[in-house]
Amino acid sequence: MFTGFNSELVNSQIAPTQASSIYWQHLGAELVYTQDRCGKYLSFWWEGGKELGLNQEQVVGSALEEIFTPIDIQAYYQKILRVIQRRIPEQCYCLFQYQEQFFPFELVISPILPAQGESMSVLVMGHLLKDLEISLLNNGGNLPLYSYHKLLKQISRKIRCSLDLDTIWQETVNSLGSALSVSRCLILSYGSNKKDLKVEAEYLQTGYRSMLGLSLNWKAELYLRQALKSRHPVAVDLLDNDPYQQKSVLVVSTAYNNQENALICLQQCDRYRYWTVAEMELLQDLAEQVGTAIAHAQLYQELEQASFKAEEANRLKSDFLANTSHELRTPLNGIIGFLKLLLEGMADDPEEQQEFIQEAYKSSIHLLNLINDILDIAKIEAGKMELELTEVELDELFQDVDNLIRTQAEQKHLSLQLKLPATLTPVTLCGNYQRLLQVMLNLVGNAIKFTHEGGIVISAEISKKKTYIQEREFPGLVKISVADTGIGVSLEKQDKLFENFFQVDGSRTKSYGGTGLGLAISQKLIEAMGGTISFYSMGEGLGSTVTFTVPLSHLPVIKTVQ
How would you classify the pairing of strands 415-419 and 31-36? Predict the structure, then answer.
């Protein structure tokens, strides 16, 4: 009865004899051999080798690539080094070639630990996977399996039948994951921001956690970086504890016109898996098909969005022309009407004559403002709006707004409050005075127009946080707010307020007049000066607040509260 084996035999550098093979047989494995850290066979026994005419003396002393050869020599060699360095056994699957035949083995690679010194060799025991025995086309094992070739055609046909991105993603992972019997198959999108990979679709066997919707930092994982860089499948075994139980991973990038657009990731979670050359070739061929399909679907989406935006722009411009023609005719008719009354001598006295002239003048100013709005938006969109930025005193800006607009508020019996920050030195902004005044008058004018009772509060707040705008450093910002107690805006319509020609509701606001360009112009002017603008309302009838920022030229001295 076998009670052990000679350790000298394991470490022997000489060819094993027929007698020594008896010791290997008693281990109970079909395949047993030892190798040094360079992959050289030190001893070898395989029960099925006799039927193939495999001479054991021929194998011992040979290198990995000479007689009994792993198909993926580099991956196998890395496993040997990893086992020796970590002194921990590993289980894996490996496809070997002998002459023109191929043999899939399940292997356990164990370090041989000497009494003294570092481990320099491994003991490998294997079991032939007869149910997975494969027959490659006769070209040195480099061509994919016929069944894989057929599978590639099936998956490609499915994804080519759709221009819907979600369908392409899901069809890919379902077909590939099911065919290769992996635990999990993912598609991760590689967006234009080039920062994160998002799991867009997932094939998942029962018993494992879903990764759908996760965002992964590709820079943090070496194998993901390699896949994006190399364009070839990257196989890796994860030995550390993984929250998603990944053990063996095979990943490849998809691309179109040399631009990466996704990653396909196969994961085996129940065991360590050897990825065959045929599986890698299948994945790489499929990645080319998927990359093209994704690019076409994305282009189709962009065309749909562009078409929708064009239709929406045409609708808005049509509405604008309809509204603006009315807006322009109203003051023009006023001017013509009052001038006609004067020419026909309809004024009874000098006082009434002066009144007609003032009304004609007011209508002409209103008409000029409407035309200026149209010209401003045209200039901005054509990129011809140039702003000269200088130092602007906040005090002066607020005072001019008060002088120009208070009468309008009083005529509607509305309160108008201006609240400046408490400072010992002037608050100096960096901006264009005329355009800041235009924005302020625009926002306050809107607040008065859409407010029937209550009032308007104009306030400013200083932020001392340094900010960088157009590669220039500023010591802080001023946030200016215009709050009113007016008609408000429903939540679902607030995101459209800054669109050109948009009016909250034509039938509701038509009586208020205006082109619908005020907020759009204000936004573009503020952004051109390095600031931002936002609108907030709790809903209809609950008032509104418009806030914008302007960079500070320098920090003022703030009053301390006693």
Answer: unpaired
- State pLDDT tens for residues 234-253: 888 887 788 889 999 999 99
Coil, helix or strand for 529? coil
Q: 184 with 292, same domain?
A: yes
Quick one: what percent of the chain has pLDDT higher than 90?
A: 19
CB atoms within 10 A of CB 504: 18
Residues 269 and 169 grouped into a single domain: yes
List the one residue out of 134, 129, 130, 110 whose CA is nearest residue 121: 110
**What is the rounded CA–CA span in Å between residue 557 and residue 422?**
9
Of 97-106, 139-148, 477-486, 541-550, the poorest mean pLDDT is in 139-148
Same domain, 264 and 409: no
Give, for 395, the enclosing helix (H) or strand (E). Answer: helix 394-411
pLDDT in tens, 63-85: 888 888 887 788 788 888 888 98
pLDDT at 142 over 70: no
Eight-class DSSP state of 393: E
Rounded to 10°, the helix 518-528/350-381 angle is 60
Instruction: Decide if 363 contacts 354 (C-beta within 8 A).
Output: no
Using CB atoms within 10 Å of the CB of residue 235, give its burial: 0 to 12 exposed, 13 to 18 middle, 19+ buried: buried
Distance CA 409, CA 359 (A): 19
Do residue 548 and residue 522 come from a single domain?
yes
pLDDT in tens, 32-56: 999 998 888 888 888 888 788 887 7
CB 503 within 8 A of CB 516: yes
Q: Are residues 292 and 416 in the same domain?
A: no
